[in-house]
């Protein structure tokens, strides 16, 4: 029986590899017909604002590159697109990428952190008790933040990939809490939920931008231009909080009534997380998976595009 199972698993892995390689070839053929330098994957979060701004106000063009921004509402779909090289650069949590890079040496590298806000959203049915049923994604920034900042609670973790479903379950009293990114947390609060901003005292946000290996190796000029435009957007956004919120509302298709309630982070020029910060995340991943993570800091991070300011 074990031989049969082992044979089945080998056949499955081989067929999966063939399928992924086939998708990669198809994506490469389709890419030849795409008249853009970079395909960029972003998530519905305040982290995306500098990329939206650069796209909206022509900063990518000023830097000499053409960019297509694709919004992913499901992190798993984005990971699949990244794995099959249907996008060149994408936003993800540091903990997700540690696992991806551990399992695939060609997964690319972090070129900059992003800046996000992750409030706790609370059901009106929550009784204030120590035991909390909380909605999260398992291998994600939401699970990481819950473990970091909700240490006073006994967490009954419910792993739910779709943010809208988490919100529905909160409204129905089927969850007590959920960790959501802004502005989705504010969108949820507008439906009758409570939003609590937790004290994120860390120096870095847990989300990062990742370029695939092929782009890093073959298109360094384009990668540099992306970060030039990103930095230009961060500078241009200073003092323009209302415009940033309005752009997030527009790009994410949210109700304009929530605009003034969106919490924005302090946006930074391109920078990479410190070794200490990455080590904390790595230790959390090792505990989560109950296995040793061997990928090194230098294998995870590329410092070539860090701002000199």
From TrEMBL:
One matching Pfam family: NMT1
Domain SsuA/THI5-like, chain residue ranges per copy: 46-238
Name recorded for this polypeptide: SsuA/THI5-like domain-containing protein
Lineage: Bacteria, Bacillati, Bacillota, Bacilli, Lactobacillales
């Amino acid at each position: 029986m074990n031989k049969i199972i082992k044979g089945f698993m080998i056949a499955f892995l081989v067929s999966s590899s063939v399928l992924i390689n086939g998708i990669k070839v198809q994506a490469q053929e389709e890419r030849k017909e795409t008249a853009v330098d970079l395909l960029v994957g972003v998530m519905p979060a305040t982290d995306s604002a500098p990329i939206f701004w650069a796209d909206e106000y022509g900063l990518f063009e000023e830097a000499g590159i053409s960019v297509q921004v694709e919004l992913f509402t499901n992190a798993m779909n984005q990971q699949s697109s990244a794995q099959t090289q249907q996008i060149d650069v994408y936003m993800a949590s540091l903990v997700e990428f540690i696992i991806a890079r551990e399992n695939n040496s060609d997964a690319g590298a972090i070129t900059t952190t992003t800046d996000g806000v992750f409030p706790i959203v609370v059901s009106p049915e929550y009784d204030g008790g120590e035991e909390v049923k909380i909605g999260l994604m398992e291998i994600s920034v939401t699970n990481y933040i819950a473990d970091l900042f909700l240490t006073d609670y006994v967490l009954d973790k419910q792993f739910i990939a779709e943010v809208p479903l988490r919100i529905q379950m909160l409204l129905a009293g089927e969850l007590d809490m959920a960790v959501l990114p802004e502005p989705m947390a504010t969108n949820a609060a507008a439906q009758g939920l409570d939003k609590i901003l937790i004290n994120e005292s860390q120096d870095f946000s847990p989300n990062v931008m990742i370029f695939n290996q092929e782009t890093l190796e073959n298109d360094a000029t384009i990668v540099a231009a992306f970060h030039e435009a990103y930095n230009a957007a961060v500078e241009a956004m200073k003092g323009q909080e209302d415009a940033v919120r309005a752009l997030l509302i527009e790009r994410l298709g949210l109700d304009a009534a929530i605009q003034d309630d969106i919490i924005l982070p302090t946006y930074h020029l391109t920078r990479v997380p410190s070794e200490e910060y990455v080590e904390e995340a790595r230790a959390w991943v090792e505990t989560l998976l109950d296995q040793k993570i061997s990928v090194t800091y230098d294998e995870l991070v590329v410092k070539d595009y860090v701002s000199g300011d």
